[in-house]
Write a structure and sequence with these properties.
heterotrimer, A alpha/beta (about 325), B alpha/beta (about 325), C mainly alpha (about 300), A: about 325 residues, alpha/beta, Rossmann fold, 2 domains, eight-stranded mixed sheet, four-stranded antiparallel sheet, 13 helices, about 20% strand, globular, disordered C terminus, C: about 300 residues, mainly alpha, MetI-like fold, 11 helices, elongated, disordered N terminus
């Protein structure tokens, strides 16, 4: 088995301070080199804090309470602050949801991209500027030499996100984490950005983790999907198989409730009820009240994420669409 | 238009909403944002018109103008036979109840310091109902949204996004409007909650025979809700027609691009659709392109597109598109 | 189709939650204690003070603190401790009344300016700018010239000087709130300006105003001392921390306790109100303008 670029094992995160509670529990997933992983789920499921914790950006308020995050064999959770500073931007980069507010409004675009280069690669000012212009052109910004001295507020959302991507790629990271990168953008611009990420992923040979609540968005781009619910991973598997034959009832219901663009449905499928609040998690399966296929076992025993076939995992006592227990998907 | 058809509930004619903003260059005293630039459509009884488009296309401004929250710069808004734009402010106030609006953000659309009871009572108090009548109506309203009476004394922050949106819907129904402008009512909600709200809106429409102007950017949601669709771009309507037809055979290149760009989940046995990715960014509504506003990004652009603005032409069967080459598509 | 709305138990009331947060902040709890002490001193002065503050006894003039006169005596033989205790009264009177004046006058004008905008905003803001350009001292001298010195003068002078702050604050809040959707909703029902101001703008503008009130009290107490020090405020023989300090300055080398103790108490009082103001500001998070509850955790 090839060594994984990123290996998250049994990660648990908690919110410290006033009203402390657990945010995510026992999260495990792997990202191979050049792989594309999609982490999906609805609000409050913990996908964003999981991503932030890879770069340990949530600390000290959001702190890991157990588990490990192995990047190229090195456990980031025990790394020194100096080492983390090297990793951030240098080996692992991140882009965020709101491109317009993720850039410093009083600094030019060129300066901000150049900053990453100056810090991590110790380039001089002129070399950094040239490299920044090249990066702008790589991310598809027309006339990059004239855009280098522009301020963020002079650009559209789509352009800002491209600048963010350029910033993230400045030091050729091995892993790019994209946290809801297109949520704030129009649908035609969304398509452009995903297309760009796909191209750059191939061109730079980097791995990508994309976090989103929009399953449709990742269905073409991601190779593997991790579905999160109420702070846990409930299902994991290759994208095509997962969408075609979801194992966990939550995944299935979530897919069913997406209003389709290409056909009519009489009535949209919904998931009744709401996510249990962090202080009132049931002892058994967290999805039980909304599942529709729950049994007494589900009420008493919390299902563990287990393998149900070829690279497919689900945390369910009664997984759906299991063809036979030997091979699934 | 066919004269046998009944008078539509809402008829918008040549609506323009222009905003004045401060000029960006020193020599510009002010600029004009042409948010809505000559838009016309009708909505019949118990019909839903879906209004789609991307940011800056003017769909929200059109909705707010219809709900009388923004004064139109030009054009007419007819509610049955009454021309709202020609009324005095006093007369206008009497017609306010006929068009109500459901807002996008469930949090900022509810006063955080008012209980559910107070939020629902406010429109009724303004309308001058007696206290008993108000109490009765409030009870009817919470019934429509499946709330219990103990929810009446709660504050908005005690509810989830979907529940808050229900409160907003109940409030909009309080005055028994004829038209409901839904301004991105589900965009701020999770997918599974979106479905609940969409189903609720459809149920309400069936029961009360309301007309909806459903403004959204998610083509999947719009499809499931609308009877007819209008696609806007930079303040103008690019295409309008019956829902099934527009989705199946879009005539305008922008509609085609939107449909192509809409992300879809591929379930079992579905074939991947080749996607056309639009180049460039949305032009600024302050300085729209000459001729056809879409020509700067249109994959089928020709010389005439830059010179002449295409009219919204009738293509038969209720379909209209603003493109010089609309008929030649398929 | 009816799906059950989750019947969660009603949350702990916001007020009690906030009171809890206040008490956990150490600076704030100490301040609360101090303020309670000050109010008690002012209210119960006749019963707490060991001596009549204006009773003179030249035979014991300028005595250092001892067991009879715990904080010493001044050059007329009056007991400093009693004078300080009675001095709490004008301090708190001026503190509370001048800020109340400023808030009651400034807030409505500010809300109107922010909500209505246009020429009204320009006019009100213009007046505010003029008021701000006057140093408070000049304003006080003006008022004294017109109305004579004394505590009333001080209240008016300080109150008027603080009006611009409240106008600006209220105006800022109104500008933000009027753009929110719940105000638009109210307009769509046909609500007129006055109703919107009363029901929507004012209640949601409270947060920053409350903070300003506490900070304004601190400021007012300090200014009152300053004006009394200059002889424009409370007139002797009535005690005020300001005029006590003035008397003390003359004898600063022989009898430092005359200026020291009033000065100390003044400092502590101003500090207490400032700390409360900071704590209240931390609790009344500006996010509460739109009422988002809970810690800001990314999803």
């Amino acid at each position: 088995m090839t060594a994984m670029l990123l290996s998250v094992r049994d990660l648990s995160l908690a919110l410290r301070g006033d009203g402390a509670h657990t945010l995510v529990e026992h999260v495990s997933f792997d990202v191979p080199e050049r792989g594309v992983l999609g982490i999906v789920g609805e609000s409050g499921c913990g996908k964003s804090v999981t991503a932030l914790s890879i770069l340990r950006l949530g600390e000290p308020v959001i702190a890991p309470t157990s588990g490990s995050i192995a990047f190229n064999g090195e456990d980031l959770l025990t790394a020194s602050p100096r080492r983390m500073q090297q990793v951030r931007g240098g080996e692992i980069s991140m882009i965020f949801q709101e491109p317009m507010t993720s850039l410093n409004p009083v600094l030019t675009v060129g300066f901000q991209i150049g900053e990453a280069l100056r810090v991590h690669q110790r380039l001089g000012r002129r070399a950094a500027r040239a490299a920044a212009i090249e990066l702008l052109s790589i991310v598809g910004i027309p006339l990059p030499a004239s855009r280098i001295d522009v301020y963020p507020h002079q650009m559209s959302g789509g352009m800002c996100q491209r600048v963010m991507i350029a910033l993230a790629l400045a030091c050729r990271p091995k892993l790019l984490i994209a946290d809801e990168p297109t949520t704030a953008l129009d649908v035609t611009v969304q398509a452009q950005i995903i297309d760009l990420l796909r191209r750059l992923q191939g061109q730079f040979g980097m791995a990508v983790i994309i976090i989103t609540h929009d399953l449709a968005l990742v269905s073409d781009f991601a190779e593997t999907i991790v579905v999160m619910y109420a702070g846990r991973v409930v299902e994991q598997g290759p994208a095509a198989a997962l969408f075609a034959r979801p194992l966990h009832p939550y995944t299935e219901r979530l897919l069913d409730s997406i209003p389709p663009v290409d056909r009519d449905v009489d009535r949209l499928a919904t998931i009744p009820g709401t996510v249990p609040p962090p202080w009132a998690m049931p002892p058994g399966c967290r999805f039980m009240d909304r599942c529709g296929f729950a049994t007494d076992r589900c009420r008493d025993v919390d299902p563990v994420l287990r393998t149900l076939g070829d690279a497919r995992l689900a945390a369910c006592h009664h997984p759906r669409h299991v063809r036979d227990h030997a091979t699934v998907g | 238009m066919d004269s046998a058809l009944p008078t539509p509930v809402l008829s918008v004619e040549n609506l323009k909403v222009h905003y004045r903003v401060r000029g960006t260059r020193p020599w510009q005293r002010h600029n004009v944002v042409r948010a809505v630039d000559d838009v016309s459509f009708t909505i019949g009884t118990a019909e839903t018109l879906g209004l789609v488009g991307e940011s800056g296309c003017g769909k929200s401004s059109a909705g707010r103008a219809i709900a009388q929250l923004v004064a139109p710069t030009a054009g007419r808004i007819m509610l049955a036979d009454v021309d709202l734009t020609a009324l005095s402010p006093r007369q206008l106030r009497r017609h306010r109840r006929d068009v109500q609006i459901v807002f996008q953000d469930p949090t900022s659309s509810l006063n955080p310091r008012m209980t559910v009871a107070e939020l629902l009572s406010e429109p009724l108090e303004i309308a001058g109902l007696s206290r008993t009548a108000i109490r009765q109506r409030v009870n009817e309203l919470i019934d429509v949204i499946s709330f219990a009476s103990y929810h009446l004394s709660r504050y908005p922050h005690e509810f989830s996004g979907g529940q808050k949106q229900r409160i907003g819907i109940a409030r909009a129904l309080a005055l028994q409007p004829r038209v409901l402008v839904c301004d991105e009512p589900v965009s701020a909600l999770d997918v599974s909650v979106q479905a609940q709200i969409v189903n609720l809106l459809k149920d309400i429409q069936a029961r009360l025979h309301l007309s909806y102007l459903f403004i959204a950017h998610d083509l999947g949601v719009v499809r499931q809700v609308s009877d007819r669709i209008a696609v806007m771009y930079l303040g103008r309507i690019m295409e309008i027609g019956r829902r099934d037809q527009v989705y199946a055979r879009p005539r305008h290149p922008y509609t085609q691009a939107l449909l192509s760009a809409a992300p879809r989940v591929r379930r079992a046995n579905e074939v991947a659709i080749p996607r056309t990715i639009l180049a460039g960014d949305l032009p600024s509504p302050i300085d729209p392109p000459s001729g056809c506003p879409f020509h700067t990004r249109c994959p089928k652009v020709q010389a005439v597109c830059m010179a002449a603005t295409p009219e919204l032409r009738d293509l038969g069967d209720g379909r209209r598109a603003a493109c010089h080459f609309a008929e030649t598509d398929q | 189709m009816a799906d059950a709305v989750a019947g969660a138990p009603a949350e702990q009331s916001r007020l009690s939650r906030r009171a809890g947060m206040l008490l956990r902040d150490r600076g704030a709890s100490v301040s609360v204690v101090l303020i309670v002490l000050l109010v008690t001193m002012a209210a119960l002065a006749p019963w707490i003070a060991p001596f009549d503050p204006t009773a003179q006894d030249v035979s014991v003039a300028l005595q250092a603190p001892d067991w009879t006169h715990l904080l010493g005596t001044d050059d007329y033989g009056r007991d400093i401790l009693s004078r300080i205790i009675y001095g709490t009264r004008p301090a708190l009177e001026v503190g509370l009344l001048s800020v109340a004046l400023a808030a009651c006058v400034g807030t409505p004008f500010g809300l109107l300016a922010g909500y209505v905008g246009g020429w009204l905003d320009n006019a009100i803001s213009g007046v505010v700018d003029v008021l701000l350009s006057f140093p408070m001292l000049l304003l006080a001298i003006l008022v004294v010239t017109l109305a004579g010195s004394g505590i009333g003068t001080v209240i008016v002078a300080i109150g008027v000087a603080q009006i611009p702050i409240f106008v600006r604050l209220a105006r800022g809040s109104a500008l933000v709130i009027r753009e929110l959707d719940y105000v638009a909703a109210s307009r769509s029902f046909g609500a007129r300006g006055f109703r919107i101001l009363r029901r929507h703008i004012l209640p949601n503008a409270f947060g920053p105003l409350v903070v300003m009130l506490t900070l304004g009290i601190a400021s007012a107490i300090r200014e009152e001392a300053g004006l009394s020090f200059l002889g424009l405020g409370v007139q002797p023989p009535a005690p005020s921390w300001g005029n006590l300090i003035r008397d003390g300055v003359a004898n600063i080398l022989d009898a430092p306790w005359l200026a020291l103790f009033p000065g100390l108490l003044l400092t502590i009082s101003v500090l207490a109100f400032n700390l409360i103001g900071d704590a209240v500001r931390d609790i009344l998070d500006p996010r509460d303008i739109v009422g988002r509850a809970g810690p800001r955790v990314p999803k």
